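Let us work through a complete example step by step.
Step 1: write down the sequence.
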Amino acid sequence: MFYSLRGMAVGVAAVAMLSGWAAVNRSMNWSEAKATVDYIDRTCDFVETTYEGKKAVSARGYTDTCNSTDEWEKVKQKHKKVSGRATVHLSYSAPTDGSYRTGELKLTGRDEDFYTLKAGSTVGILVSKTEPTRIRKA
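Step 2: predict the structure and record it as tokens.
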């Protein structure tokens, strides 16, 4: 029992150290900023199933832009089953030098922002203090 308590204590200490390091790294190397979404390139993987009565006869997969389907509203509601990728094109002002910049964020169908972001939306980002062109999602 003593070994399990010691192992648990070491595990808790390791998690606390990693969390502390992540917070220090974030505050030392990144600055928070707001970005505006210029446009989004979304690509979804669809499966088209052919039925005879209630029985599925064949299925065909294809990749296309998510906005090319009239059922995008239904797709957004079933987002846990959608496979897709998006490149979000942003514009922002770099906090370190105040220069106007553009950048990209990559999203997948697992991200909630994949379904909710649209042109003109505001997004919180982190901008590198050393390279204002490097960004990541806040």
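Step 3: interpret the result. Residues 30-137 form one domain.
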